Amino acid sequence: MAADATTQEGGLVFHPLDQFIVKPMFGDGPIMWYTPTNVTLWMGIAILAIIGLFVLSTRGRATIPTRMQSIAELMYGFIYKMVEDVTGKDGVKYFPYIMTLFIFILVANYLALIPTSYSPTSMIAVTAVLGFGVFIVVTILGFVLNGASFLGMFWMKDAPAILRPIIAVIEVISYFVRPVSHSIRLAGNIMAGHAVIKVFAGFAALTLVSPVAILGITAIYGLEVLVAGIQAYVFTILTCVYLKDALHPHH
Amino acid sequence: MATQTHDISTCVDAGGSAIGMPQLCADWIPNQVFWLIITLIVIYFVMSRIAIPRIGAVLAERSSTITNDIAAAEELKEKAVAAEAAYQKALADARTQANEIIAAAKAEIQTELDAELAKADAKISVKAAESEAAIAEIRAGAVKSVTAVAKDTAKELLKAMGGTVDAKTVTAAINTRMKG
Most exposed among A18, A70, A89, B43, judged by the fewest C-beta atoms under 10 Å? Predict the structure, then answer.
């Protein structure tokens, strides 16, 4: 693969998207739904990292925490407070689900920054499962908890009577666009960052511009470190906001 | 490594590079979805069964420890305040006691002083009486001498002037003069 990014036939050839190819871990067979692939590998590493951070580090149950335990506690407190602040006290019972989403996206995003690693959260299939999963669960929850009055969310009672149907149409459209934007935002950010790094890496093959290219990689990498955290945060807080709509549809 | 995949995948070309976006390759989607769901289930169980209860317990324990420590500190502070009050009270008591002792000593000294003064006064008055008696005696003696000298002088003067006067008249005259 390294040869692909270097000059061929006298010109620069970029394959910035090759890093997202799904490959079987063992052999070269077709990729069935159960085949262990590089996606599987890096999701497995994410699971191991999460177990290391949240289970092994808290094994001591220390009142005065170790560094790792302190990180786990800070993340717990951060998401717990977010859920409590955004959705209110009755949203706290959904905290484990939101924590699962946050920690998976965060760890996957950061693991993807390791060179030669694979980034599951850059795949639209992955983020669409997350985004539509949140959308479906929140919609079902909204109808189960509030019945038909959940639809009142789309009917603005404080708007002028003439505008209400128009606003309702806009609200319904925006409601159904939510899972799309929710999932594409995450996948797009991660994919774009990684592709840009790869493009800069392609330029590094030219002696003349290689210092600039390497500086560019460094800068984009720094930006990606921010993006990895921010996107996990954004995904989680939007999940909380959608959940709040399901729990309290009457703003 | 990916050279053979072009036979079995529509998303990778003969050179092992992606055709279009790998994100949109339909062949790979079921695989990712399957493994993602497995991963999420595993993470959910790890978090909800082990990590979250454990961290929640640790945090609760810590906050109760902190509350207890603060309560203990408050108690100690109250004790310190009580000790300070006791100290102040002891100090005030000691001060009043000292004042009492000083007053008693002063009173004692005063009575002693009064007694001594009375004694001294008595002595002084005795001496003064004695002195007065002595002065009175001296004064009486002096008057008598003056009278005698005056009579003698008057008699001698009369004799020298040639007059004759009996002694009784002269004495009476001098006595009236002396009284005046």
Answer: A89
Sign of CA dihedral A76, A80, A83, A86: negative
- 3-state SS class at B18: strand
Q: What is the pLDDT of residues A114-164, one digit of tens each?
A: 988 999 999 999 999 999 999 999 999 999 988 888 888 888 888 888 888
Whether the complex's predicted ipTM is more than 0.85 is answered with yes
Task: Identify the CA nearest to A54 among candidates A74, A39, A40.
Answer: A74
Rounded to whole angstroms, the Cα distance separating A108 from A126 reads 11
B68 touching A (Cβ < 8 Å): no
List, for residues B118-171, the tens digit of each pLDDT value: 999 999 999 999 999 999 999 988 888 888 888 888 888 888 887 766 777 777
- By Cβ distance, the residue of A51, A130, A187 closest to B23 is A187
Distances (CA, A) of A61 to B56, B64, B85: 10, 14, 43
What is the count of structural domains for chain B?
1
Which is nearest to B41 in space by CA: A171, A133, A55?
Answer: A133
- The span from the CA of B160 to the CA of B180, in Å, is 26
Q: CA B136 to CA B66: how far, in whole Å?
A: 102
Note down the domain range covering B19.
5-179
Residue B24, min C-alpha distance to chain A (Å)? 7
- pLDDT score at A111: 94
